[in-house]
Specification:
Distance between the termini: 59 Å
Strand order of the largest sheet: 5-7-1-4-3-2-6
Number of strands: 15
Largest sheet: 7 strands, antiparallel
Helix content: 25-40%
Number of domains: 5
Radius of gyration: 29 Å
Number of helices: 8
Length: 359
Amino acid sequence: MFDDRTYENILEEMLDKYPDDIDTTEGSPVYNAVAGQAAENARFYTFLEAAYKQTFADSAEDEYLERRVAEFGINRKRAKKAIKKGVFTSESGSPFDISIGSRFFIDELHYIALERIELGAYRLECEIEGVVGNIPSGDMLPLDNITGLANAQLTDVLVAGEDEESDEALYERYVHSMNEPAFGGNISDYKEKINAMQGVGGVKVFPTWNGGGTVKCTIISADYSMPSAELINSIQTEIDPEGNQGKGIGLAPIGHTVTIAGVQKVMIDVLTTVTLEPGMTAPAIKPTIEQVLSDYLLILRKNWKDEEKITVRTAQIDARLLTLPGVIDISGTTINGIAANLELGQEEIPALGAVTVNG
């Protein structure tokens, strides 16, 4: 808006106001008198331009975007700590109970025991916020000596940790809310409420899925995997508690019987034949190929909530593998034993299974 309010333009305008018989050349008393003020004016317009942009949601950033969208009841999702399952056994191999508050160490992260699930199994919370807490699995070490404990395992993600919502994601939710207003239990209302909950990465809403008054909401975890039973149950309780469904006790309107479900994982086995540059071998490049395939399927899972159905495409696999250093050509790619695209169901997501690389 103020692109023309540069130092040079402002200075020229100020000097043009003097009569022609007054010396305004660089170094003259008049020039020196107004040059400093021109610089301050240009600086002011720079700040004014920045402030002007922060008044609109499509150009606002950070706290200014938060304040803008909060006027419409939309708040940034804050970083959350991951909650994972811990399994503990004694020297005899039997389940072993630990004390609430016990702390454990794995992959430079600390986890603390919050709650007992069953004998020898506990909910453990990462002490660091964010998705980093979702990653570790395997053997843990106790920070303090626990007499009788022989083995501590960190296993399933119960509630996925989340990084703080980005400006882009927050603005996307704002635009969706404006374009598809949420009201009284319509589809947008369910999406808005469920997407704002911890551990949820996306949701699909199926109205009247089992007759009038029934609603099915299928969720994907915040780490774009199958959600745990614990997460599904917690969302069910918030939306429409079992045993009191349709009564309006949760967030769902009176008369809506809501079922919360989780996406189902479909394993994707890939076989492909690669032509490699001299010195390269199929076993050596296989880990890189597996990573590329994992990244591709992750992109599909992230888009699940916006797609009617996910399609895993052989052409996309070939195109990605052809960009790898040392790969000359790709042929014979199959998905789950078939040389064709694989279309998944509305509530299914792909996960990488076995990868076979022939060279």
